[in-house]
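[stage:ingest] chain + small molecule (iron/sulfur cluster)
[stage:ingest] validated
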Amino acid sequence: MSERVIPLVDHRAVGPGLVLPNHPVAPTGQLTDTLGRPLRDLRISVTDRCNFRCRYCMPKEVFDKEHAFLPHGALLSFEEITRLSRLFLAHGVRKIRLTGGEPLLRRHVENLIAQLAELRTVDGTTPDLTLTTNGSLLARKARALKDAGLQRVTVSLDGLDDAVFRRMNDVDFPVADVLAGIEAAHAAGLAHIKVNMVVKRGTNDHEILPMARHFRGTGTTLRFIEYMDVGATNGWRMDEVLPSAELIERLRAELPLVPLDPTAPGETAERWGYADASGRHDPALGEVGVISSVTQAFCGDCNRARLSTEGRLFLCLFATQGHDLRGLLRGGASDGDITSALAHIWQGRGDRYSELRASLPAEAGQGTRRVEMSYIGG
Ligand code: SAM
Ligand code: SF4
Ligand code: SF4
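[stage:predict] done
[stage:export] tokens:
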């Protein structure tokens, strides 16, 4: 089949040229990649900036005053994000997560949420609309986000001890303000609130039990994330990873837990329910999750695509290159062209980094060209 190549127009990082099939590809909602994985989950980074400097994500020495964040004109506009989201939904996306950087730093992000809330999936339903935040601005913004149509929120919180938390965010931000943000999210009616805790052995693993006790029975689901080798700046070391299996053992020694079934295919977290005295899951006590991105690869049903702040499409969290969709948008491509490009890109996807990690050379863990999580979105 003859193909048309649309040249890249951006010079920040060289990505692969976008190739369009000559015949337009109509969306069927059933797109699959080379491993048969559907496209269901779209994560959109709305800013590369953040008011925290978590060492595992944006270490201060690298993301300092000299660091060149993207100028406003480089960012996808709300209209561009909404247009792309509509085309992604036609290919079968059901869930849209806004992330960053810190998404609540993007001015009037609630206006974007209002636009996205108008869109529909191929089944005619509202897409599952959620957002991941460090919680610092949530107390102020929860109500406006909910009113705009946000359904759920995930708050990152790495410990309850104020000194530990201030050290981890590295900007001396107090834990009380994040807890107030979580309260505000509940009060605003945001459902299924999740708290994500990245666990680094020797840094905050002593906070695992206090965090579990604090959120048990509150309706907030705590999820523990293995510290990952994303990006190229966090100085990742395997000995700082606390394997989820060990974490669950530590929890079970104090709090009875029973394994729960996954709620959806492609779910990243393994679920554990708090048990009652008879050893059965007690829904009133809730559950915890573990995300074993390092020790237990879950690429087999990975249905996630990531749209970077400047409109590059990444097919894997560990990808080194993205596909320049902003070039298409600003080059005057039609909806049909973009739909075809998305189909072509996803159909060619074979990424499964986490499954391959163990067989890669050790230095691959800190590749120099990998994109940062703050740019690609978590
Ligand atoms: N600023 C927002 C926040 O912190 O929730 C959204 C963006 S942040 C990049 C998204 C998620 O990625 C957060 O839950 C964060 O803890 C997680 N994350 C960042 N770097 C990580 C790493 N090296 N390993 C595991 N998780 C990481
Ligand atoms: Fe900011 Fe989130 Fe990264 Fe922490 S994890 S530096 S809050 S983007
Ligand atoms: Fe998906 Fe890539 Fe993570 Fe595997 S490593 S689960 S393909 S994002």
